[in-house]
Amino acid sequence: MINFTVEDQEGNRQEHEAPEDMGLSLMEILKAYEYPVLATCGGMALCATCHVEILEGKDGLGDATDPELDQLENLPEYYPTSRLACQIRIGEILDGAVVKLRGEDVV
């Protein structure tokens, strides 16, 4: 199991854990914890409604893919540490990370 922290739109932080051996994405885990992540495209990097900002632990995640960058660059608020949760696989590199919800459905 890996442990990570999610910061919601109000700045509240909550620690969570997720299995690293099931091939799940961060988007799927956020939805399982009932965070308001629309994920309209179902994890295909086509809608950016699973936009998150990696506040801590971004170094091990690698660079965003071209399709991911295409979506992120069209957002009204895009940060250097922005990622699409659907494109981040749960694994050891996410252990200890802090993720802030930024999807367009989060108000």
TrEMBL record:
Start and end residues of each 2Fe-2S ferredoxin-type domain: 1-105
Keyword terms: 2Fe-2S, Iron, Iron-sulfur, Metal-binding
Region Disordered, annotated ranges: 1-20
Biased composition (Basic and acidic residues): 10-19
Cofactors (names): [2Fe-2S] cluster
InterPro entries reported in the protein's UniProt record: 2Fe-2S_ferredoxin-like_sf, 2Fe-2S_ferredoxin-type, Adrenodoxin-like, Beta-grasp_dom_sf
Membership in a protein family: Belongs to the adrenodoxin/putidaredoxin family.
Name of the protein described by the UniProt record: 2Fe-2S iron-sulfur cluster-binding protein
Organism phylogeny: Bacteria, Pseudomonadati, Bacteroidota, Cytophagia, Cytophagales
